[in-house]
Amino acid sequence: MSSTGSPLPTLVAANPKPLAGICADVRAGRVTARSRVDAFLARIAAHDGEIHAFNEVHADAARAMADAVDASVKAGRDPGPLAGAVIAIKDNIVMREGKTTCSSKMLANYRSPFDATVIERLRAAGAIFIGKTNLDEFAMGSSTENSAFGATRNPWDTARVPGGSSGGSAAAVAAGFCDASLGSDTGGSIRQPAALCGCVGFKPTYGRVSRYGLVAFGSSLDQIGPFAHSVADAALVYDAIVGRDELDSTSADAECAPLAAKVAEPLAKLRIGVPREYRTNANAPGVAAVLDRAIAAAKALGAEIVDVDLPLTDIGISTYYVIAPAEASSNLARYDGIRYGHRAKLAPGEDLEDLYSKSRAEGFGPEVRRRIMLGTYVLSSGYYDAYYKRALQARRLIKQEFDRAFETCDVVLGPTSPVAAFTFGGKKDPLSMYLCDVYTVNTNIAGIPGISFNGGFAEEDGKRLPVGLQLQAPAFAEETLLRAAAMLEKACVG
Question: Is 189 one of the annotated active-site residues of the chain?
Answer without folding.
Answer: yes
